[in-house]
TrEMBL record:
Keyword terms, alphabetized: Metal-binding
InterPro entries: DUF34/NIF3, DUF34/NIF3_sf
Name recorded for this polypeptide: Nif3-like dinuclear metal center hexameric protein
Any matching Pfam family: DUF34_NIF3
Similarity annotation: Belongs to the GTP cyclohydrolase I type 2/NIF3 family.
PANTHER family, sorted: GTP CYCLOHYDROLASE 1 TYPE 2 HOMOLOG (PTHR13799:SF14), NGG1 INTERACTING FACTOR 3 (PTHR13799)
Coiled-coil residue spans: none
Length: 285
């Protein structure tokens, strides 16, 4: 198949007009029209090492979530990793395409994948919806903790019958933290004051989703999960909503699974490789 056909399948799933005005999703580097795809390397971020990995694995297409070229390039030299990565991709005839806020917004996109990993049920958009080319989109999703996870938390906790009855309709805040650490493999979860009531209804937004905190409260969410928030945004919500921040990379780490599913649904024999490189620039010591 041609690279153009693969890109068309991705953009049909998450149309580029769904992206935010500040974004730069779509083609980043290379050619798409007449080039046969030898393989697709799927990743969150594009770095020099990721281009090397694509070349090593025989992939002439990289599909990333975060755009390599986000801000204007006034020159292409070797002054920073973006310029060096662009040069390396061009030298090796590797095409780079990014599906960013359009894939965040699309139904079945990044936020739905996070909800799936968390095991949420009855997932739907909150905080506003829009539709482009028949594809529904929204900034965040809201759903409910599954009965299975509520039961597991109740059975695992050494709680009195009275406390168990109190949390029969949801899970305790510390159990939500443990669930997040387990499902997303995070070293720690940043939280505000732990909520002293059952948590059942959970709103979430991958990446930098703090702008939706007010909408999550208005939607009646017991908890709000996102990738990053600033210090002052934690204030004033004690016992109103449980805030859980798990890290930008960690929240979006499963996006490549969406890319793979889309491509293979259209081209079952296509070579799709999920990058083995952890590009998270943040480490926990």
């Amino acid at each position: 198949m041609k690279i153009r056909e693969v890109v068309d399948a991705l953009e049909h799933y998450a149309p580029l007009p769904l992206q935010e005005g500040y974004d730069n999703a779509g083609l980043q580097v290379g050619l798409t029209e007449a080039v046969e795809m030898s393989g697709a390397l799927l990743c969150l971020d594009v770095t020099e090492a990721v281009v090397d990995e694509a070349v090593q694995k025989g992939c002439n297409l990289i599909v990333s979530h975060h755009p390599l070229i986000f801000r204007k390039l006034s020159r292409i030299s070797d002054e920073n990793y973006v310029q060096r990565t662009v040069r390396k991709a061009i030298k090796n005839d590797v095409t780079i395409v990014s599906m960013h806020t359009n894939m965040d917004a699309a139904a079945g996109g990044v936020n739905f994948k996070i909800a799936e990993k968390l095991g949420l049920k009855n997932v739907q958009f909150f905080g506003g919806e829009k539709e482009v080319d028949g594809v529904k989109g929204g900034s965040g999703v809201i759903g409910e903790i599954s009965d299975e996870d509520i039961l597991k938390a109740a059975q695992a906790g050494k709680l009195s019958d009275e406390v168990k009855d109190h949390f029969a309709e949801g899970i305790a805040a510390d159990d939500l933290v443990l669930l997040l650490r387990d499902r997303f493999g995070v070293e720690c979860v940043q939280c505000n004051q732990l909520l002293r009531r059952p948590i059942r209804k959970v709103a979430l937004c991958g990446g930098s989703g703090s702008f939706l905190l007010g909408d999550a409260i208005a939607a009646g969410a017991d908890a709000f999960i996102t990738g990053e928030m600033s210090y002052h945004e934690y204030f004033g919500h004690e016992q109103e909503i449980q805030i859980c921040v798990i890290g930008h990379y960690q929240s979006e780490q499963f996006t490549s699974e969406i890319f793979r599913s889309i491509i293979l649904s259209h081209f079952p024999d296509a070579k799709c490789c999920i990058s083995e490189i952890n590009t998270n620039p943040i480490i926990y010591l």
